[in-house]
Amino acid sequence: MLKEALPKIITESLPGPKAKELIERRNNATPSAIRCVYPVVIARGEGAMIEDVDGNYFLDWIGGVGVLNIGYSHPEVIAAVKEQADKYFHAMQNIATHEGYVALAEKMNSIIPVKGVEKKTFFANSGAEADENAIKVAKSFTKRPNIIVFSGAFHGRTLLTMSMTAKKSYSNGLGPFPDGVYRAEFPYYYRKPAGMSTENTLSYYIKKLEQVFDEASPAEQVAAIVVEPLQGEGGFIPVPIEWIKAVRKICDDNGILLIADEVQTGFCRTGKMFACEYWKEEGIMPDIIASAKSIGAGIPLSAITARKEIMESVKPGTLGGTYSGNALACAAALKTIEIMERDHLADRSMEIGKKVMSTYTKWMSKYDVIGDVRGLGGMIGIEFVKDKATKEPNPEIVSKIVMNAVQKGLMIESAGVYGNVIRFLAPLVITDEQLTEGLRIFEEAIRDSL
Question: Which chain regions cross the lipid bilayer (predicted)?
């Protein structure tokens, strides 16, 4: 079975002949702005494995960038979608109520860790839509115009979320952008100012946030502060608990809502169903959570959840969308969450993460190009540098590692403000043997890239 297989390259080179032909067709038919560096054309996927059109087997540690926490082609999800498809594909929520939407909203309300007893959820189609709708809800509730985001943030590619996203290569030449989006410095402790003591680090980053109130928007004009519990595109950097405690207090003191962008961190990826559960253990919860990616095992869907009083502040007609909460997507999501809870995938994420972190930490002592390893559960980043003392980023070696690894049958992806981090997002159904083989290939790719 493919889902139990190990990486295997049978063609003389990559891409193979059939893949090369389709990649050429892609280049002729689609814009190059949707870039892809991988010489892979998928024919089928199972678990954590891909078979390409030439019969090569690849171990996928990207998982659609966090979409496939339960892996490719889970048979129970396929069956759930087929069962729904036999009834109807679509019923727009503004026109006809369908039970899947309601049942999924009820389920999300029961598992999402936001402030409040009574919660409400509505659905969109992508992570960017979830983030944008979360902002709409926050502005409706607070009657305030501005938001604060952070360095290193990635929130999407719509007009608003491009302005929220830090790296401007995602929005180059596409302005002007909406006003009222202001940026503070994210607590990237590995890259704190040189010589700063540990005890001064927290106060430094909190002052950087409070500086926004003085130089960009008064606190009384800020509707929400938006933060990823573990930055994804920014370099897989977990939010320090002591920092988010201070941010929560700032929000409470100033009537600001705290929005957690759990688009990539949600659905067992970090060793909890949601990363904000780590905050909850410390008595902290956000006001709104935006989630997406692995919610539907690959079918487009996202969710926005908040307490009832926040949701009911929104004026009729300002929320919704034609495909939001599509019946097939809701069927997939309900089954996906059931599988995650039944099969204890959050626990599995912790098991995987411990092995990966242990291995990466050993590599950090072994290879001078590895500066830092960090993460939560099965969401881990490994940062490459040119010099451990100066911490100068090394995106060149990351590019080499990614290309060397895929030639050996392992698909990995870069991240980070400087493009010098490799992210671990393997499907949580990966076998122990596949994980071990993937780590072996990864290390071999590092050695080959030195």
Answer: none
Assigned domain for 100 exists: yes
CATH number at residue 405: 3.90.1150.10
pLDDT tens, residue by residue, 389-409: 999 999 999 999 999 999 999
Clarify whether residues 336 and 439 are in a common domain: no
Peptide bond into 15 cis (omega under 30): yes
Task: Report d(CA 74, CA 239) in Å as an integer.
Answer: 32
pLDDT reported for residue 13: 96
The pLDDT tens digits of the residues spanning 304-317 come to 999 999 999 999 99
Q: Are residues 99 and 182 in the same domain?
A: yes
For residue 245, the tally of other CB atoms under 10 A from its CB is: 15
pLDDT at residue 197 tops 90: no
Contacts of 421 (CB under 8 A, 6+ apart): 235, 236, 381, 382, 383, 384, 398, 414, 415
- CATH number, domain with residue 252: 3.40.640.10
Structural contact between residues 45 and 3, judged by C-beta atoms closer than 8 angstroms: no
Residue 53 corresponds to which amino acid?
V
Q: Using CB atoms within 10 A of its CB, is residue 141 exposed (0-12), middle (13-18) or buried (19+)?
A: buried
d(CA 144, CA 146): 6
Is 429 within the bounds of a domain?
Answer: yes
Query: According to the model, what pLDDT value does residue 169 have?
Result: 87
CA-based torsion, 386, 391, 395, 401: positive or negative: positive
Q: What domain range includes position 424?
A: 2-60+345-449
